[in-house]
Specification:
The chain is mainly beta and 288 residues long. The protein has a single domain (8-287), classed as Beta-galactosidase, Chain A, domain 5 (Distorted Sandwich), CATH 2.70.98. The chain has one helix spanning 270-287; strands at 8-15, 22-29, 33-38, 44-50, 67-70, 75-80, 83-86, 89-90, 101-108, 111-117, 119-120, 130-139, 142-151, 157-169, 175-180, 186-189, 196-208, 213-218, 224-230, 242-253, 258-269. The strands form four sheets. Strands 5, 9, 10, 12, 13, 14, 15, 16, 17, 18, 19, 20 and 21 form a 13-stranded antiparallel β-sheet that branches. The two termini are 22 Å apart.
Length: 288
């Protein structure tokens, strides 16, 4: 791995596709990769690219997209666009374009840190008993995101598939690669619509384009994913189309709930992605 270049911090003001308002974006760039969060919407991660390139691999078409925390609980009578929904704190904001509030934010050196209060995806209200934190650092070709979710409520929410995290990728990256549980060689599929589930080995997946390059996502310990490809607007395929994947684990959210996990991102070919994620495992074993 080449020596890490000096980290650069960037700030930009962009227009939201969901709300039509200006948003504040903050970036880390180490000369190899660039990652950006929307400070105006829960500091959710909505940009990941190679340094010096405008090709963003992530999708942030609305506040339900992004690479972000999203948790699920009990039925609460809420409705998403006339569809019955459940308790669902989302990091970026609600489906009506109401952004989530950031309580603490720091972008300094080689680190972004944020603490936020999520919004109910369907209802739009702040879920003030749930707190999200994220800490982002860059090292060579890898971005590391450390997520924390803490619940201070009194309700016990039933066991549900939890996204660890939700990841939305731009539609040009359509081929999902992973190692199927019980096998040793990676396979490539093109997910359909709606969700499909797969058991995986190794804890990583990758969405690649037709050239065989793309985004690698590693969540150590992951054994199951859910995924789909959204076709977009029938009159304009580019509008709303995306690729989606989320490592999932079944958990209940009860009083005192506190959960932390790591996510690693990288950009490259499948052999490059696998090699970098294998290095993470090797380094982790060496530290034990």
């Amino acid at each position: 791995m080449r020596k890490l270049a000096a980290s650069l911090i960037g700030i930009a003001f962009l227009s939201s596709a969901s709300a039509g308002v200006k948003e504040t974006w903050r970036f880390l760039d180490n000369g190899i990769i660039r990652i950006g969060v929307n400070e105006s919407a829960g500091a959710a991660v909505g940009w990941f690219s190679e340094s010096g390139r405008d090709l963003n691999l992530l999708n942030h078409f609305d506040y339900g997209r992004y690479l972000q925390q999203s948790w699920y609980g009990e039925s609460d009578g809420s409705s998403w666009n006339v569809k019955p929904w459940i308790w669902n704190p989302v990091q970026a904001g609600s489906w009506k374009g109401i952004p989530a509030r950031v309580l603490d934010f720091e972008c300094r050196g080689n680190r972004i840190f944020a603490r936020s209060i999520p919004r109910h995806w369907a209802g739009g209200n702040e879920i003030r008993k749930m707190f999200f934190e994220e800490s982002i650092t860059l090292s060579g070709h890898l971005a590391k995101i450390h997520f924390t979710a803490a619940y201070r409520g009194t309700v016990t929410h039933p066991i549900h598939d939890q996204e660890l995290p939700a990841v939305f990728v731009n539609p040009d990256f359509s081929n999902l690669c992973f190692i199927k549980a019980g096998e040793s060689a990676p396979q490539s599929i093109r997910p359909g619509w709606p969700n499909e589930r797969h058991q995986i080995a190794g804890g990583w997946v990758a969405y690649l384009d037709e050239r065989g390059r793309g985004l690698g996502i590693d969540v150590p310990g992951t054994k199951m994913i859910t995924c789909y490809r959204a076709p977009g607007d029938k009159n304009n395929r580019a509008k709303g189309a995306c690729s989606y994947v989320a490592p999932v684990s079944q958990m209940e959210i009860k009083p005192g709930f506190h959960y932390e996990y790591d996510v690693y991102l990288t950009i490259g070919t499948l052999p490059e992605i696998r090699h970098r994620f294998l290095e993470i495992r090797t380094q982790s074993r060496g530290e034990d």
